[in-house]
Amino acid sequence: MSTVLPGEAPETMAELEPAPVLAIDFAHYHALLQLQAAYTQAVDQADWDTWCSLFTDDCVYRVVPRENHDRGFPLATLAFESRGMLLDRAFAIRETLFHDPYRQRHVVGAPLLTGVEPGGGWRCESSYAVFRTKLDGETTVFNVGRYLDRIVPTPQGLRFAERVCVYDSEWIPNSLIYPL
What we know:
CATH architecture: Roll
Number of strands: 7
Strand content: 35-45%
Distance between the termini: 43 Å
Order of helices and strands: HHEHEHEEEEE
Structural class: alpha+beta
CATH topology: Nuclear Transport Factor 2, Chain: A
Shape: globular
Largest sheet: 7 strands, mixed
């Protein structure tokens, strides 16, 4: 059997290897989709309390340029290592950060299941695009990339134990105020 490179068509059906099937039932996949949708709605509506509630207490939330992620560099544009740190960010957004106000709107692709956690939960990846609208201006593409998530069951439902936002560009215009 010859090696089929990305972008090449296989010569025979025997060259097609099925992707591994990762275990998740419909109810859990639906809950995962609901978690993704709740996250998107929270950040688009600037509902920072809800945003924080979608994470575990010992969560990790990082925003990382693709170049740093691909090279394994630890430097992140934003890095939070607990829900307490997310609550601090939410307070800062509401009370202390001064910036040119804008609205954002997320378009998020369906999550691709990439792993099953040994203690319960799943790893998944989704593409995203964030559009920004300044109150006195036009809508522009603000940020594009992918979410790398570790989602776990809790008594409150599924929550993000980890969300790494890997953005494709090497820079962000102005500053990053709101979560991606």
